[in-house]
Amino acid sequence: MNPLAMLLALLGSFALLACIAAVYVFVAWRMARRMGERSLLGTWILGSVFLAVLYVLIWSLRREALGVTPSVAYRVKEFGAFFGVSALAFGLATLSVRRRLRRSNDSLKTRGILAGVGAFFGGLGLVFLAVLLSDLFRFF
User: Fold this and answer.
1) Which strand (E) or helix (H) includes residue 127?
2) b/e map of 82-116 (b: 16 or more CB within 10 Å)?
3) Measured distance CA(89)–CA(101) in Å, rounded
4) N-terminal to C-terminal alpha carbon distance within the chain
5) Distance from C-alpha of 39 to C-alpha of 17, rounded to nearest angstrom
6) Which regions of 1-135 does DSSP assign to beta strands (E)?
7) pLDDT tens digits for range 45-72
């Protein structure tokens, strides 16, 4: 595969994740404003389930295009792993929304959305740092 195409695919994936995180932050803010802070728990869980299902669906479609059909048990394990990743990422974004909601009850500005998206990517970074460190410790 061409390195430029790989770079564009990576940037496209990051852009898609940023859009998903921005929509999540907006929806979480609106739900918290309408139904109170306790609704953030529901948006956090539903957002995590949505992203985990999306990951499993994309991975399954890619594998089936290559001729590999994983079992249902393998997909359930994938869902669990992806749910953990998305729960941490959306959890940090939810904490960012909650902090902004407590600080000011005004409308959500662009800075609030960017802070939520940054927190989302911070959560993803924490997961990938943990995976990197566990791989490094296996060698030593």
Assistant:
1) helix 110-139
2) bbebbbbbbbbbbebbbebbeeeeeebeeebbebb
3) 19
4) 33
5) 23
6) none
7) 999 999 999 999 988 888 888 888 878 8
Q: How far apart are CA 57 and CA 67, in angstroms?
A: 15
- What element of type H or E holds 116? helix 110-139
What are the residues whose beta carbons fall under 8 Å from the beta carbon of 37, sequence distance 6 or more? 98, 101
pLDDT at res. 105: 66
Residues 33-63 as b/e (b if ≥16 CB within 10 A, e otherwise) read eeeeeeebeebbeebbbebbeebbeeebeee
Give the tokens for residue 109: 């500005």
Cα 22 from Cα 110, distance rounded (Å): 10
In angstroms, the CA 22 to CA 116 distance is 7
Per residue in 31-47, pLDDT (tens digit) is: 999 999 999 999 999 99
Element (H, E) at 88: helix 72-103
